[in-house]
Amino acid sequence: MDQPPFTPPHLPSLLRQAVPMLIEGVFAPLAVFYAALTLIGFNGALGAALAWIYLGMLWRVVRRIRVPGTMTLTAVALTAQAALGFWTGSTVVYLIQPEVGTICLGLVLLASLRLRRPLMAKLAQDFVHLPAFVLKHERVRQFFVRVTLLWAFVLIANSAGNIWLLLNESIGSFLLLRTVAMVAVTALAIGVSVWGFRRVLRRLSLDAATT
């Protein structure tokens, strides 16, 4: 049975979907926390970061817009971090939690490979809708295996380096170096992922055109 035609999404449309979600659900809560930390103190910064992410989720629910998986993961992680942060009152404890959590997420990505259900295939649906027959294609499945492995390595290596910085540098230096490293490494990993994704989809289009 012939599959319906599938046109790969253009890179600008992918970026228009992905960038706002990443900013809103990942980078903005960190920026809110860092900004509030200098203005209203540690506890106020925790509350501001939580308020940002939960108000964003509430706004989507009220408007009946699907809450992205990336935002849900961030909300769960921030809630756990804030609970321990409020309890201990320690900035170091609060800042080391997301790094430990990110390492755990990297391990979850690796575990999803062992289960033959690469997690990046599910998260990719936040940014672009793929028909079921595309997701089941062997080339696409292999791509998500490789990109899941890539992100597992990026998350674990980056967070391990951040923990070393936190334990050996001042809080101010840690925040600056962590932000620079996170933006640079994440941008590179996103670039590689998008390039590989587009390459696989182009091959699928070529295969469909020759059959």
Automatic annotation (TrEMBL):
Keywords: Membrane, Transmembrane, Transmembrane helix. It comes from the Bacteria. The chain crosses the membrane at residues 31-55, 67-87, 93-113, 143-167, 173-197. NCBIfam families: VC0807_fam. This is VC0807 family protein. It comes from Microtetraspora fusca.
